[in-house]
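Before relying on records like the one below, remember that each one covers exactly one chain. Contacts with other chains, cofactors or solvent are not represented anywhere in the record.
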Amino acid sequence: MPLASPELAAFRLPSALLDPMALRGLADPTVGLEFPDLPQPFRDPPLLAPAALALAKLARLLPAVVAASAAPASLEAEGLLEVGAADVLAYPAGAAASLWPVAEAAVPLDGAADARLVAFRAADGGVEHLAILIGRPDEVARAGGKAPLARLHSECFTGDLLGSLRCDCGSQLRGAIARMAEEGAGVLLYLAQEGRGIGLVNKLRAYSLQDGGLDTLDANRALGWGADERNFLVAAAMLERLGVDRVRLLTNNPDKLAGLAACGIRVEGREAHAFAPNGVNDGYLETKARRFGHLLG
């Protein structure tokens, strides 16, 4: 039952397609396999299809699943686990709400000597999110003057660590730290939401599709993901634990302003955070402006 985004679709698969390579080809457009036309999708997908799709996304897998009925008595006999659909759908919000700082250390940075790193983890373990604190943003937040600078930065292995020219993430990361150091205080949330929440492996798949002519948004959709899968509750919970309830946000993305405010953080202004194209990421930046509504002008 391949499920696609933004619309969810479900098909009854012929037996000829029930082998691992065929299923991978149906789920992954980067494989390049050709198949006969599938039957028309069900008018009403199965009731539990959204939860099945959400479970695949939580595992950072391609959001395509094969569903088969199973008698409750057979689950234990086959060594299978059972999880309720409501629990799957509620998990992202619950995990974000349970985030708590578990480790902290001074980590002087190039150009920002007064820096600390705080690691956050959800109650069930899961992935760690990090906060880079420059100075004392909590004290600035409690004072009556300007709110401290903040940035929500989704981790980008290729851009932040390798210096990839395909995006502007590395420039945004280092530029934000420099700006906060200049002001004397700020908080950068380094969120484990690679590729707008689809994960590194799927981001590489999306790059492959972009090399074939799709833009960032259409490549994500071709893989079954939404345009942006990130969860702003994560950032709001971290800021709350850090004692920062009001910020000036370093961003070009209006969705971050609205999303953070909707989660209870007072966003007292936007600070522009754009960097010039480098000759490789020109199309990427144009897509961010035209299709994602980023304010790059």
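The chain has 13 helices and seven strands.
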